[in-house]
Specification:
The complex is a heterodimer. Chain A is of the alpha/beta class. Chain A has 11 helices and 8 strands. By secondary structure, chain B is an alpha/beta fold. In chain B, strands 2, 3, 4, 5, 6, 7, 8 and 14 form an 8-stranded mixed β-sheet that branches. The N and C termini of chain B lie far apart (61 Å). Classes of the chains: A alpha/beta, B alpha/beta. Chains A and B meet through strand 2, helix 3, helix 5 and helix 10 of A and helix 3, helix 4 and strand 10 of B.
Chain lengths: 294, 383
């Protein structure tokens, strides 16, 4: 029996490994919505699926690679970006997507993140930020807001926080958007745009973790965190990324912050090589006077 | 420059350069690396040569990234290599394990210097031999080759790629600073004379392909990204579909196969160079630059009338257990010169099981053995 799906929507059998369901994510987690949004965004992008590969690191968001019916790589903690870099450069026909979490991408993988952005490597990075290390039981990380309680910051976190869009912009990303797990339609559109952007594109999605982060910070149900997003998100396209840091229970600036043009890594490399390997013009014949003067 | 697509003829080049040329002859078209003495010249050569032959050179932000980049490139279907030395080798250990677990063909060169830590960056060591065997966490088997000359740097680079494709595993070239930096004549054959092994491709259509169903030799065929297979692979313990499976049974099945595909094919993998072993009473067993000096010592001992023989380990891992066991039944002693405090000597001792004595001739690094230290050990062994 054929099923009909509304225009622009993916159907699960096309993109999800249904034989891997149920997934491992907790009730109330944002990953289900975000994956759904991503698959719709991918579907709408019109990219040929045989030429799309997805690479994840380790963590809750890192499990995405295992659920998506694409050439999919579940690598080591923090290393999705350099793995994806090799994949992309060795086969430039591929669209390579990195899907992972905040701890994976900007803590243990932080160096790879900034260097891939600096190179303007042609990758689309989807960073799910739940402010915590979920898979290991909810410890603080570089995105945990000051004062937030976690399994390793029982008295409140005292470490200053990375502002991910600002980090990405400073490093050289050409496309940066941020949404929360509540902003399904906007998220989908950003995914599609990011997939079509040449160079290093980043979509950060703020995601609820009621089981760990929420429970320790007075938002114990998924719905609590979604309500918090609903009441505190401010859509501000083109916002100065210096102003979009997130404080504990503070406002969350969302939108498309950066969409600029800058030559991608391979474009610059090709230009340099073309110049170096261009046929040299034949040297002008020496005049008799020059020849005899030697 | 385009005329240099393939080199052939006789060259006077360093081991590092020869290694890069061997990789290119093998079809390596992706190199990711990070500068580190004494392996830098491999990266330099690759940065110049890969653009000439339509390949990729990328200088990554560190050795962790370099190792990952070659894994990614290999999964895109391109033969890939990185080269490093001690500190970088340590950083590569994490994702060497990923390469083993995903069964990713690739080649990792370690031009060994003396450690630990920063140690003697410009001077020889052989202290990473056990790290090569056990450096990534968990239990696995690995292939490691030990060239003793620039010519062998060239040849073993080709061999390393062949083994990596045949057994779907990272292969290590465990060179040392002396072999990497010395210049000697290297003969590069014409391209048509160089035979290399292609990747073992799936014989089934994508809808029937399971990434980890092995052939009879325990090695599974490999689909590349972008070919329509839509496969999944993970560093987690997994089943034949490549799906994670968190059970002791899945672990047992997977790890036994990963270990056995190398250990049970030892006879095909192991390469040894044997001299004067027929009547030998004492055998110098060594590898890399130490084996060259060892062979010189054996020649001197023979001149003195001592029945000495030479066993050079071209393959260090898997360790040639059977050959050492056989020899231990008929010789009095093994002399093991190496530039460390005894690593391969431990293996020789294990395999000879007290049937023959094992005499380590250690060198702490920063240089090579004086031949007389080995000759004296040979004489002493027969007293």
């Amino acid at each position: 029996m054929t099923q009909e799906y509304s225009a622009g929507r993916y159907y699960p059998g096309e993109l999800l490994r249904e034989d891997r369901m149920p997934h491992i994510w907790c009730p109330g987690c944002g990953m289900g919505s975000i994956l759904h949004g991503f698959l719709n965004g991918l579907h709408q992008s019109g990219l040929p699926l045989d030429k799309v590969a997805i690479v994840s690191g380790i963590g809750c968001a890192g499990r995405v690679a295992g659920y998506v019916k694409l050439d999919s790589f579940h690598t080591t903690h923090g290393r999705a970006i350099p793995f994806a870099t090799g994949l992309k450069l060795a086969n430039p026909e591929l669209k390579v997507i990195v899907f992972s979490g905040d701890g994976d991408l900007v803590s243990i993988g932080g160096n790879h993140f900034i260097h891939a952005a600096r190179r303007n490597m042609d990758l689309t990075v989807i960073l799910v930020n739940n402010f915590t290390y979920g898979m290991t039981g909810g410890q603080f990380g570089p995105t945990t807001p000051l004062d937030a309680r976690t399994a390793t910051s029982r008295y409140g976190s005292y470490e200053p926080t990375f502002n991910v869009p600002n980090l990405a912009e400073a490093s050289g990303a050409v496309y940066i958007a941020r949404w929360t797990a509540l902003h399904l339609r906007q998220m989908e559109q950003s995914f599609t745009e990011a997939l079509h952007k040449k160079g290093f594109s980043l979509v950060e999605v703020i995601s609820p973790c009621p089981t760990l982060y929420g429970r320790m910070n007075r938002q114990p149900r998924g719905l609590d965190q979604m309500k918090y997003y609903q009441q505190n998100s401010i859509i501000q396209h083109g916002a100065d990324t210096r102003t979009v840091g997130i404080e504990l229970n503070g406002k969350i600036t969302v939108g498309k912050f950066i969409d600029i043009e800058r030559p991608a890594y391979t474009d610059i490399k090709t230009r340099v090589y073309e110049k170096a390997f261009a046929p040299k013009p034949a040297a002008p014949a020496k005049t008799t006077a020059e020849a005899s003067s030697k | 420059m385009s005329s240099r697509k393939s080199l052939s003829g006789d060259f006077f080049i360093t081991g590092d350069v020869a290694c890069a040329e061997g990789a290119i002859s093998a079809g390596c078209r992706f190199f990711a690396g990070y500068p580190i003495t004494p392996a830098t010249e491999i990266a330099e050569r690759m940065s110049e040569r890969q653009p000439e032959i339509g390949g990729t050179y990328i200088q990554m932000e560190d050795e962790i990234a370099s190792m990952n980049a070659i894994l990614g490139a290999s999964w895109a279907g391109v033969k890939a290599m990185t080269a490093t030395s001690g500190p970088g080798f340590s950083l590569m250990m994490e994702n060497l394990g990923l390469g083993v677990m995903l069964e990713t063909p690739c080649v990792l060169v370690n031009v060994q210097r003396a450690g630990p830590s920063t140690g003697l960056p410009t001077l020889a060591g052989q202290g990473d031999m056990m790290q090569a065997r056990w450096g990534s966490h968990g239990h696995y088997s690995i292939i490691a080759l030990c060239p003793d000359s620039p010519q062998e740097m060239y040849q073993l680079a080709i061999k390393a790629f062949d083994l990596s494709e045949k057994y779907r595993t990272p292969v290590l070239i465990m060179a040392d600073e002396v072999v990497g930096h010395m210049s000697e004549k290297v003969t590069i054959p014409p391209p048509e004379e160089i035979k290399t092994l292609p990747r073992r491709k799936p014989a089934v259509p994508p809808e029937k392909y399971l990434p980890y169903v092995p052939d009879a030799d325990l090695v599974p065929p490999m689909a590349n990204a972008g070919e329509g297979y839509h496969f999944h692979v993970t560093g987690l313990t997994h089943d034949e579909r490549g799906y994670p499976l968190m059970t002791a049974e899945a672990q047992d099945k997977l790890i036994r196969r990963l270990v056995n595909k190398i250990d049970k094919n030892q006879d095909d993998i192991i390469m040894l160079k044997e001299d004067w072993l027929d009547d030998a009473e004492v055998v110098v067993c060594s590898y890399g630059i130490s084996a060259r000096i060892g062979k010189f010592a054996v020649e001197r001992a023979r001149a003195e009338g001592i029945k000495a023989g030479m066993l050079r380990l071209i393959t260090a891992w898997p360790f040639p257990e059977n050959r050492i066991r056989q020899l231990s039944k008929k010789v009095k002693a093994f002399i093991v010169p190496e530039i460390n405090c005894g690593q391969i000597a431990l293996e020789v001792e294990r395999c000879s099981s007290g049937r023959a004595s094992t005499i380590l001739v250690p060198h702490m690094g920063g240089g090579v053995h004086q031949p007389h230290t080995i000759i004296e050990a040979i004489r002493k062994a027969l007293k």
